[in-house]
Design brief:
The complex is a heterodimer of chains A (113) and B (115). In chain A, 0% of the residues lie in helices and 53% in strands. Chain A is built from no helices and eleven strands. In chain A, strands 2, 4, 5, 9, 10 and 11 form a six-stranded mixed beta sheet that branches. A five-stranded antiparallel beta sheet of chain A has the order 1-3-8-7-6, with no helix packed on it. Chain A starts with a strand and ends with a strand. With 115 residues, chain B is mostly beta strands. In chain B, the strands form two sheets. In chain B, strands 2, 4, 5, 6, 9, 10 and 11 form a seven-stranded mixed beta sheet that branches. A four-stranded antiparallel beta sheet of chain B has the order 1-3-8-7, with no helix packed on it. The mean pLDDT of chain B is 94. The chains are: A mainly beta (113), B mainly beta (115). At the A-B interface, strand 4, strand 5, strand 9 and strand 10 of A face strand 4, strand 5, strand 6, strand 9 and strand 10 of B.
Chain lengths: 113, 115
């Protein structure tokens, strides 16, 4: 059973701080990793994707991947109240036929004024 | 910006009835997916579809479920005899390719309520 694990939170950070979200996965064959943001009652919205070990930066967001440790993280700099949402980690193993995403349960982030 | 659309946004049905959830994927995408999310739980993969065939399905996707691409734009999920436990948000997604790096873009979802 391929699993993706996240701390459900809530993670509370003050406005302007760095929020750090973490995810581990069980399948060593996983090839690509995604962070989606989900507001309550809405659909997942892609924030970042990462495929290679190391860091990938996009604006206030940085994704970090360590395949040896089976660990992926998302850093949000200068957190804003609008960043308050649930952040979903998703992993794609590419089975050769299906390309399905396996999601974690999500980490709820609260950015406080 | 192209987006995935889904109709209806909310569907209420009686247990045992059939429902069809509709999706219009992004126009140049070739790979289509259905996921569901029971309230308070994780997003779960149901099925992937390419070239008019199911590529992969989960154990949730049993005989009561079917998918179809009836024309060049729509992608549907049919639930033949709904159960109470089918109540969930159903998300359609599409991607341009099937490589592991191809991003899946999600529609706004259909909230299915089975009474």
């Amino acid at each position: 059973q391929k699993e993706v694990e996240q701390n459900s939170g809530p993670l509370s950070v003050p406005e302007g701080a760095i929020a750090s979200l973490n995810c581990t996965y069980s399948d060593r064959g996983s090839q690509s990793f995604f962070w989606y943001r989900q507001y309550s009652g809405k659909s997942p919205e892609l924030i970042m994707s990462i495929y290679s070990n190391g860091d990938k930066e996009d604006g206030r967001f940085t994704a970090q991947l360590n395949k040896a440790s089976q660990y992926v993280s998302l850093l949000i700099r200068d957190s804003q109240p609008s960043d308050s949402a649930t952040y979903l980690c998703a992993v794609n193993g590419f089975t050769g036929g299906g390309n399905k995403l396996t999601f974690g349960t999500g980490t709820q982030l609260k950015v406080e004024l | 910006e192209p987006e995935v659309t889904q109709t209806p946004s909310h569907q209420v049905t009686q247990m045992g009835q059939e429902v069809i959830l509709r999706c219009v994927p992004i126009s140049n995408h070739l790979y289509f997916y259905w996921y569901r999310q029971i309230l308070g739980q994780k997003v779960e993969f149901l099925v992937s579809f390419y070239n008019n065939e199911i590529s992969e399905k989960s154990e949730i996707f049993d005989d009561q479920f079917s998918v179809e691409r009836p024309d060049g734009s729509n992608f549907t999920l049919k639930i033949r005899s709904t159960k109470l436990e089918d109540s969930a948000m159903y998300f359609c997604a599409s991607s341009a390719g099937q490589g592991a790096a191809d991003t899946q873009y999600f529609g706004p979802g259909t909230r299915l309520t089975v009474l």
